[in-house]
Write a structure and sequence with these properties.
heterodimer, A: mainly alpha, 2 strands, B: 297 residues, mainly alpha, two-stranded antiparallel ribbon, 11 helices, 1% strand
Chain lengths: 343, 297
């Protein structure tokens, strides 16, 4: 008989209740920050699917984020779409570009793939600059306040946006969580761990790699689309912005915990917190971020979640150790730090 | 036709910078198997150091030499202190990417903090070479000078790698660290040397990149260069120094001719190296001069 994990169920309900109640206890500004954390977390989750679970390194996800943002902004500003309806379109277009960029991933891997995606991130804003012209000739599109306002009359704009982003994030995290426990998810992990071995047991390596790339790009695209809703702008005026975004996603994944479900969200929270702390010293922020990144790789190579799992395993082992007879198989935690299971 | 030739030599002039950075990337790749995403920013920092010495009244050539020496030392220290803990075949390549990206952000920001005063937009680097054409052949002096710098660089590097005992040890570590260790070579020292050489090459490349046109430069100087140099290194093959130089020159010329003749790419010249990287990696993943590596399962 399986025991229901009561603790997890209760903790989940409490967490959900807190997440739902949170916007009513905070200022609009803070709610916007929460929404920013969540769309960052969506993009980071997408990157985590690719890098953490499939072993392909991308530092070009900022470009997919940008594609999503500009898809939504163009549809809203030039064609009058409601912004909520643009989210699936942004996801599809990003996924399409993801397939195109994913093809080289079949031939090249590891650092070389990082190289291609680096080119993408640097190229993207320049392409936008050339083909998108906002007011004043700047590649900046801003929907009107009305276009991104609440569609539920009894709800304030910031709370409405918070809920939209929360809903999308919950859906996408649930999707990722289920995907990873499915046949497709196991194939992704098998390709990461041992490509040749995976192909010998019938995994379609090329198919898995490309579809993971597309899915991951779609996550980033949705995040970009939501960023237009939250920040009311799609901006390519700073040519390095989307490269910095790419690095942010990577930081969120690494700080939170590569190849974990909760990691990207925790990493995003921490990242935004750091960013807000250091925002008054603008030049220092990237220096601190870069330094923090290096330190994290040394101190917590598997991120917050990985560190927590190691700590838990250590404590359980200490607790299990004193009695002389070896503990029964059920009591022994089974941490596998090298291939952390989805948590 | 005159225009074509002008553009061709302009391309060589910029290609020299790409070739230098690509050489640095290749040296690091050969000794440690890593792509150094921070290479451009390391070069940027060295460029600021060169500028600082010229600002103190030193001539640009001695300033560059001092900067090369300092970069050499700093490069070795970076390898020893920052890179060493995460490098090696058993380590996760993601950690290294993260570390070099962290260095990318940190070095860029530090350079701005240390050298640029608040409110200042760009710095002014004195020009290395006089303006005007070389009499008789109608090529700018600067381009001839830059090509000469690259040639000297290659010659020194070739002598070091092929004609000295240290170079032999360096190549031994690059080809097989385990066996190299068995014959008494200290691989750690060689890795440090590799990074030191790369940093020194970066100092030359950065200064060359800044010291052209009006000589104005800021902290974004090397970011585009880095992408072009990656293209150059990919084109030539990541384990071939000769390939890096040829690749750098090809990328420079291709870029310059595209700007001149392909109007719709105006403003997005970066598409050229990007396309080059893609094509090379798809058609010939080991580059023009690279060796094929057989993977053992």
């Amino acid at each position: 008989m399986t025991k229901l994990p009561w603790f997890r169920i209760v903790a989940g309900i409490v967490l959900a209740a807190v997440a739902l109640a949170l916007p009513y206890f905070n200022d609009p500004d803070i709610n916007t920050v929460f929404a920013q954390v969540m769309y960052l977390a969506i993009a980071a989750m997408g990157l985590n699917l690719l890098t953490g679970f499939n072993g392909q390194i991308s530092i070009g996800h900022g470009a997919f984020f940008g594609i999503g943002a500009f898809t939504s902004a163009i549809l809203v500003v030039d064609h009058g779409w409601p912004i909520e309806a643009t989210i699936p379109v942004a996801a599809l277009i990003s996924a399409g570009v993801g397939v195109v960029v994913g093809f080289p991933a079949l031939r090249v891997k590891g650092l070389y793939l990082a190289l291609i995606t680096l080119g993408l991130a640097v190229l993207f804003p320049r392409v936008v600059e050339k083909f998108v012209e906002g007011p004043g000739g700047v590649p900046l599109l801003q929907p009107t306040r009305l276009q991104v306002s609440s569609t539920i009359s009894s709800m304030a704009d910031d709370i409405y946006r918070y809920y939209v982003v929360l809903l999308v994030m919950a859906l996408l995290y649930f999707l990722a969580w289920n995907l990873l426990r499915s046949r497709a998810g196991r194939a992704m992990i098998a390709v990461r761990d041992q490509e040749v071995a995976a192909s010998t047991v019938g995994v379609n390596v090329a198919g898995v790699k490309i579809s993971t790339f597309a899915l991951s790009a779609a996550y980033a695209g949705v995040a970009g689309s939501l960023s237009v809703l939250v920040d009311r702008a799609a901006n390519a005026a700073n040519p390095l912005l989307y490269f910095q975004r790419s690095i942010e996603f990577l930081i969120a994944v690494v700080i939170g915990g590569t190849a974990t479900i909760a990691g990207p969200l925790l990493g995003s929270m921490l990242l935004v917190a750091i960013r807000r702390r250091t925002s008054d010293t603008e030049a220092m922020a990237p220096a601190l971020l870069g330094g923090a990144l290096i330190v994290v790789v040394y101190v917590l190579p598997d991120g917050i979640v990985g560190g927590y799992l190691r700590l838990k395993a250590y404590v359980l082992k200490r607790r299990a150790a004193p009695p002389a007879p070896p503990p029964s198989a059920n009591d022994v935690p089974n941490p596998t730090p090298s291939t952390p299971s989805p948590t | 036709m005159g225009l074509f030739i002008d553009q061709f030599f302009n391309g060589i002039g910029t290609g020299v910078v790409y070739a230098s950075v690509a050489l640095a990337l290749v040296i690091i790749y050969r000794t440690t198997g890593l792509l150094n995403f921070a290479q451009g920013e390391m070069a940027l920092f060295s460029t600021f150091v060169t500028w600082w010495f010229t600002d103190q009244g030193l001539g640009i050539v001695p300033a560059l030499l001092v900067s090369i020496v300092l970069s050499f030392i700093a490069g070795g220290l970076i390898e020893r202190i920052i890179i060493r803990p995460v490098e090696g075949p058993t380590k996760n390549p993601l950690s290294v990417v993260i570390i070099t990206l962290g260095m990318f952000l940190a070095i860029n920001a530090l350079a701005a903090l240390i050298f640029i005063k608040p409110g200042q937009e760009a710095l002014q680097m004195p020009l290395l070479f006089p303006s005007g054409d070389v009499p008789g052949i109608g090529i700018q002096k600067a381009i001839v000078g830059r090509a000469a710098v690259l040639a000297i660089e290659c010659l020194l590097l070739w002598i070091l790698l092929q004609k000295t005992k240290i170079g032999l040890s360096l190549r031994a570590v690059a080809s097989n660290p385990e066996s190299a260790k068995l014959v008494g070579i200290n691989p750690g020292a060689m890795l440090m040397l590799g990074w030191a050489l790369a940093a020194a090459l970066g100092a030359v490349a950065g200064t060359l990149a800044a010291s052209r046109g009006t000589g104005a430069f800021d902290t974004s100087l090397m970011q585009q260069v880095l992408v072009f140099s990656f293209a150059a290194a990919a084109l030539g093959g990541f384990d071939s120094p000769l390939g890096a130089v040829v690749g750098g020159l090809i990328v420079g010329v291709a870029d310059s001719l595209t700007i001149q003749y392909v109007g719709f790419l105006d403003g997005i010249e970066l598409a050229v190296p990007f396309a080059l990287i893609l094509i090379v990696l798809l058609v010939r993943p080991n580059g023009l001069f690279g060796r094929n590596i057989v993977e053992r399962v």
